[in-house]
């Protein structure tokens, strides 16, 4: 389902989330839960049963509070350093293996970029994001710019600081920026706090409707 959180502006920049937005969330949730469980055992020294309990807690949050659940925020809240998390995820998580080319995503992003610049803001590392985008078929070149975990330091989404990095890079007022993502609290709310607007989607199947709205608003 598409939900528009409007501020009345015409977009000068549209910023997309990656995971669960440009490819289905089902492709990564199980994989990332397994990686987090293994990381708690390996890096924190948790007994397996304690790690399993933490994973079960995160799985339930994903089931009941998807819009406000960030795996990055969860692992940081459980004592893992942000750089440790990124390095461990990069070494052990291969989401790209399950991703498939998606002509619909490529087509809709091209259609939107024809009328307004588009950016990607992701908590993935640059290397992981590039691999996923290549597999989808859009590539990094399909965006006007990409801001990854490597660019935001200790301020990953949903920290508004991640969005400030993007705003500074594009030299654009937040009030003229629209976010598109599958989780309101992670992908849209921080931008709203800065004055922007957004659209929540349930996944790539909703992109045509979201793009229709944005093209109409930008024209």
Automatic annotation (TrEMBL):
Please give one Gene Ontology molecular function term for this protein: phosphoglycolate phosphatase activity
What Gene Ontology biological process does one annotation of this record name? DNA repair
Annotated protein name in UniProt: FMN phosphatase YigB (HAD superfamily)
Q: Which organism is it from?
A: Saccharothrix saharensis
